[in-house]
Amino acid sequence: MRRSRLTRLWLSTAALALMTAGPGLAQTAPPSAEGARLNEYVRVLASDEFEGRGVATPGEDRTVDYLVAQFQALGLEPGGPDGQWVQVAQLSRTHQDGPATITVRSGGVTRALERGPQVLVSSDRPVSRITLTDAPVVFAGYGVDAPERGWDDFKGVDLSGKILLVLVNDPDFGAPEGHPVAGRFDGNAMTFYGRWTYKFQEAARQGAAGVLVIHDTAGAGYGWSVLEGSSTAPDFDIVRADPEAERVPAQGWIQGPVAEQLFRDAGLDFAALKDQARTPGFRPVALDGVTMSIDFGQTHANIESRNVLARIPGAGHPDETVMYGAHWDAYGRATPVGDDDIYNGAVDNATGVAGLLELARLFKAGAPPDRSVLFVSWTAEEAGLLGAEYYAANPVWPLETTVVNINMDSFLPGTEVSPQIVVIGAGKSETDGWLERRAGEQGRVLIPDPAPQAGGFYRSDHFPLAKMGVPALFGAAGFTGHNAASQDYVTNRYHKPSDEWTPDWVMDAAAVDIDLLYAVGRDLADSRAWPRWSPGAEFEAVRQASDDQRPE
Question: Among 267, 366, 384, 520, which is most exposed with the fewest C-beta within 10 angstroms?
Fold first, then answer.
């Protein structure tokens, strides 16, 4: 029965697609996005039938099948390797098996920490059990080694076998005006060094046994409930040649007040040490007499997941690519809230995938673009941008001649078109100018990210390709940080089962946003321009290294 219902859902939206996909339609004006189509795509993708679109679950199979059917109905070509619709991404999956025992010993007294409310631990190592016994605890500041910024929190201290406590965000986050560290990184705009993903990786490079990021809502950009709610979902990583060198045995988060108690147990002043950690002379500080033990079982398997790729070949320069991307995954089934354990991911990111499909329709309805246009729906974004990470390491279409990566990660439902468009990573590249010109035609203006401390630029699928030099454009209309709808979504539905489609949804405002992204992508697809990173941007050098591969 389930398969037959899904088939009816596919056919309903496929029929809609076919109605306007014909290349022979006369175009008296640019094609326009339709809110009803976007809404129907979201309704299907966010339905319980898809079980939260979890990676390597039946929900993935249904999602991939659905997306391929839509792209086929729209008349696109497969964009994956060897003429396939998918790129298989080789991933490693770990999942907690049974309870976790986490204890702290100090002054001869052992006390338990509760996994979930107090501390969260997991492992990306491909093993069935993680056991750390009486590991010394060390405060490593912000856990940053950034030689180009003159910063090293480690100072060559031997941290092998230690569990590191590190602060979230960058050393200059929240620094008062005039403080010596202010502006040393990017102020309140989080850099990659502030991200938990970086801190986990750096702890492994330092040879640590474990790392716990000390949570605070302002620095992280989200509350503890966001972390706790998704903590029972499986963890994923790309398959690594040497996981023991690249991943610590145990990694995770610790509640701020719980961490402060560990410092008091060692006779240390946490507030004073936080101040010291904002100085380039900081050295790791051992929490003398405090040890931590961690023990939990997990299942492990190497699994295959799939990026879905569709393509419209360029009529004049088919070897040059304008890319649109949106991740298809949510959290699948995870920690129940009430009696609901399906994390449907309606806004995040069924809306982005709906936009991807609607953009494909618009490009197919218009004249053939001069450059090729690639539409990619990524896997495993919620697990650490892994589908995009895999593509960046194994590109199907050369990154050197990928003009831009236009990312779509969440549109809000509604009818009110925001006069402001948030640019995540504003000023990093010339792509802003292309967006600004077209936004002006809609009577709209660009604004920088109102919550730069959350590090949004480093938390979505454009980032792995940006690290390889591909210019990124990520506009998030509607998420201004000031309107009630945005605040309500972030507070009450983000990464929760309540991120659901409801019958009162309309996507009219999102359709205007899609029209804007279509115009920008069409401009770039029909131009000979190659947008550059701004001088001093962290991705400028790698892009410049391939300048000779991009024709004028």
Answer: 267
**16 and 146 in a common domain:** no
Domain residues for 288? 93-300
Angle at 124 between CA 123 and CA 126, to 5 degrees: 105
pLDDT tens, position by position, 73-129: 999 999 999 999 999 999 999 999 999 999 999 999 999 999 999 999 999 999 999
Q: For 442-469, how does the pLDDT look when each residue is reduced to its tens digit (9 = 90+)?
A: 999 999 988 887 788 988 999 999 999 9
Instruction: Find out whether 214 and 274 touch, Cβ atoms under 8 Å.
Output: no
Quick one: 437 and 501 in the same domain? yes
CA nearest neighbour of 9 among 54, 48, 35? 48
Select from 225, 166, 227, 174 the least CA-distant residue to 198.
Answer: 166
Cβ-in-10-Å burial (0-12, 13-18, 19+) of 330 comes to buried
Give the total number of structural domains in the chain.
Answer: 2
Residues 6+ positions from 279 with CB-CB distance below 8 Å: 180, 181
Q: How far apart are CA 125 and CA 135, in angstroms?
A: 18
Q: Do 354 and 458 fall into the same domain?
A: yes
